[in-house]
Structures are given as structure tokens and as C-alpha cells.
Amino acid sequence: MNQTESDQISDSVNITIYQDGEWNLDNNNEDIYDLTLYGGTVTANGGDLYARGITMQGGLIDSGDSGNIDLSGNILIQNSNETSVIRGHLTLLMESTQITVDDSDEDADLEITASIHGQDQIEFIGREIILSGDNNYTGKTILHDAAEVLVMNANAFGTDGNGTEINDTSYIIIYIEFFDGYIYEPFELNGNGNGTFSAINSAGNPILRGLITLNTDSDFKSLSSDNSLNIWGKISGLHNISFSLDSGSGPSSISLHNSESDFIGIVTINSGILLDIRSPNALNNNAVVINNNAALSLGMTGLGDGININIGSISGEGDLEVVSTLDGNGSLTIGADNTSKTFNVKILGDGSIFKVGTGTWTLTGSNTNTSTFIINNGKIIFNGTDEYGPVQLSGGTLGGNATLQTVTGDSGRIAPGNSPGVLQIMGDLVLTADMSLDFELDGTLGDEYDHIAVSQNVQLGNSTLNLDL
């Protein structure tokens, strides 16, 4: 049907288009009640179509570049083997519009390539819904009742940053690349996906710059080793956060790049993920767990400048890299949560590691880190098989069975072994009068008493010797 002039149809009439049907407004305007497509095509071709509701089982609605679809109701996609498509321009006129895909049939889906306009709140319900238009609607976006939204445009959720809520088992998959633009949308996570997918998933290399609020424990997932996720916005909330790789051995990079984050919870890095920290307070002094085949890289901004990272504690079996960079900066301060942890991991890089807090940090993995461990409080037990870098004591305690480059101390304690044991120092041992040496003597055999083997110079500096017989 080709329309020859505007307003030929009563606004109380429902229009239904079947599989081979076609309605072409041909640059005319029309006002109807409900529009239903069972396949078929509706083309505005420069005209404006006003409808109070849209139901589709496949088919195409296309306003054209200069036309528009004005909607004062909801959109319902019913079971069909054919994708339903809306193109051109779609203007929402209600305070809240529901866009629902009946997901009882997995073949039912909706692709909206149209630019969405208006001040409406939009609710997405069901799966799967593809958003690829450059949208500028200003209302809030809500995903609920197992919504699945595939994000193909940086402005998929509008441009004014009114926020997107992801509820229950709903989730988004982002297919944006670096060069496609930043996503400034704030996200509020009230659910953590459906088990297969997390609330936020990356199938590209997107950059999220909006606030992320955690209202539940939340996982961020990269769907393959070729994908990455860059979280440059602030993270808030009182919940745990984790980072995961869906398929492949990795590494898949996830970067955190905002020093204003104030979330409180445990951070878990799962297998295949390289978590790259690019700002000092990105982890907000929280405890970090690095699982096997995962890695945490610290100490360098996107410009290559060294930074100082604060972490409450670290445990697990993955890799830890502390980067100094060319400017000589870049370090890790660990222990502010005062807990005791065992870290069976590889430590890499050349950035300094500061131990604070009252807890004990036990290192049992391999080590290629060449910079200084500074023990200001608490205790570090070195039990790894590789040689560690220099150790400087300024109030804390050094213990374990390991090989160290050099040991210097202006205050604190050295307690070799794990009752008893040996510390081997390949360089110098230089202490002051504010230091103490704590030795256990349980016998005369070599494994029955603590001892320190020093390869170079020894300066005890009137330090105190404490014997436990």
C-alpha cells in the first residue's frame, strides 16, 4: 500500500501488516492506534507515523533519514524466527516506555538501529535487544526480567547520563572498540547477570567513564582473550567485585583508571585476567585475591608515569607486577587492612613494595622483583625459593627461610625462619641500635636454631640480641 496523502486513516484504527505486506507512507504523515507486523515492511520515506503501540513478529519499520516514528505506547516483540528491525528515527512520547522481547523462544529478538529520541524512561525486558543507533533520549534506562541488551554504540543508552539500572539476571554485552568513543553512562548494578553472563560483559574494547554503583556483589566479564574492558569511571558501593574471562586462556586486560573510587569489598581477579591499575586509589585499599593464571599489574598511568598504589592485602596464586617506570616512581603499599595473608605467587617488576599495618604477609611463590621491600609495620615472611631484592626495616619484622640481596634496618626486628630457620643475605647486613635480632635455639644441629648467613659486610650497630632457648 502506497499512501498518497496525509491523514487518510482514523487515529482509532489498528493496522496489521502480514508477511508480504508493505505500507509506504511516501513522505506523508499518519496517526493510527496500534501497529502490528507479522513480517512485512512499514516505510515512512520522509513522513511521520504516530502510533500508540507496536507489536512485531519479525518485519521492518523504517522511518528513513528524514522521517520519524512517534510512539506513545510500548513495543512488544513476540516469538518469531525472524529478527524484528526498527530503523531511522524513533521518538518516545510517554513518561515510561517498555520494550519487551518475549524470550520464551530464543529466536525472538529485536534490532533497533534507529536513533531513539525523547525524555522517556525506557524499560528493556527479555532477550535479545540490539541497540546500534546514536541515541539522544534523556530518560533513565532500566533492564529487568532477564533483559539482554547488546550495545553497539557508545550512546546506546542516551547522551545525558541519567543512568542505566541492570536488575535481577539482566545483562549487557558491549561491542564497542576504543575508537568508537567513550561510554559516559552511569551504571547501577542491582543484579549480577545469569551465571553465564555477568551484568556487564565486554565483546570489544570499550571505555566506561561513568559512575558504577555496586548494589550487589558484581562481576565484570571479558568474553574472550581478544577483548578488554577499561573502567575509567568511579566505582562506589559496599560490595565485592570480581573480574573474569569467559573463554580462552588469556590474558584479557581489564584496566581501572579512577582514583576517586570508594567501594568497599574484596577484589577477586579470576583466571585469564590481567587487571591493570592506572591510578593510586583505584582499588581503595581493599583486599585483593589473585587466582591461578591471573595477574595484577600496578604502578603506571596511561602516560607512563609511575604511581603509588594502595591495597589492603593481597593473597592467591597468580602474578603480581609492580612497575617503577623510567621516572623512578611506581610502588605498592600493602597491609592497611591489618590482616594476615599468604601469597603463593610470582612477584615481577622493579617497583618498591611498602608493608604497613599489623598483619603478616607470607610470600611463598617465585620472585623476579628487583626493587626494595620496605617493612614499616607488621611482618613479611619470605619463604620463596628465588632471591628477593633488598629489604629495608623501618619498624616492622623480617622473617622466613629465603635468600635476600641486602638487609638494612633503622628500627624493627629480624626473626629468621619459621621456628627455627635460615635467612641468607647475598650482600650486606647493616643495622642500628634500634634494631633487634630474635633467635630461637632449640639444639646444636643446623636445623635446630635460627641463623643468618651473610656473604658480604656485617654491621650490627649495637642492635639487641634476643634469645629464645
The 3D shape can be described as rod-shaped
Find the structural class using helix and strand composition: mainly beta
Q: In what order do the strands lie side by side in the largest sheet?
A: 2-5-8-11-14-17-19-21-23-26-29-31-33-36
**Mean of the pLDDT scores?**
90
Instruction: Measure the end-to-end span.
Output: 102 Å
In the predicted model, the low-confidence regions spanning at least 5 consecutive residues are: none
Profile the largest sheet: 14 strands, parallel
Count of helix runs: 0
The percentage of residues in β strands lies in over 45%
What's the helical proportion of residues? under 10%
What does this entry look like structurally?
- This protein is an all-beta fold and 469 residues long.
- The protein contains no helices and 54 strands.
Throw out a few tags for this protein:
45% strand, 469 residues, single chain, 0% helix, 54 strands, mainly beta
Break the fold down into its secondary structure elements and pairings.
Elements: E1 15-17, E2 22-24, E3 30-31, E4 34-37, E5 41-43, E6 48-51, E7 53-56, E8 59-62, E9 68-71, E10 75-77, E11 84-87, E12 89-92, E13 96-101, E14 110-112, E15 115-118, E16 121-125, E17 129-131, E18 141-144, E19 148-151, E20 164-166, E21 171-174, E22 187-189, E23 200-202, E24 207-208, E25 212-214, E26 218-222, E27 229-231, E28 235-237, E29 241-245, E30 252-256, E31 267-269, E32 273-277, E33 287-290, E34 295-298, E35 308-311, E36 313-316, E37 319-322, E38 331-334, E39 341-343, E40 346-349, E41 352-355, E42 360-363, E43 373-375, E44 379-382, E45 387-388, E46 391-400, E47 402-404, E48 407-416, E49 422-425, E50 429-430, E51 435-440, E52 451-454, E53 458-459, E54 464-468
Parallel strand pairs: 1-4, 2-5, 3-6, 4-7, 5-8, 6-9, 7-10, 8-11, 9-12, 10-13, 11-14, 12-15, 13-16, 14-17, 16-18, 17-19, 18-20, 19-21, 20-22, 21-23, 22-25, 23-26, 24-27, 25-28, 26-29, 27-30, 29-31, 30-32, 31-33, 32-34, 33-36, 34-37, 35-38, 37-40, 38-41, 39-42, 41-43, 42-44, 43-46, 44-46, ...
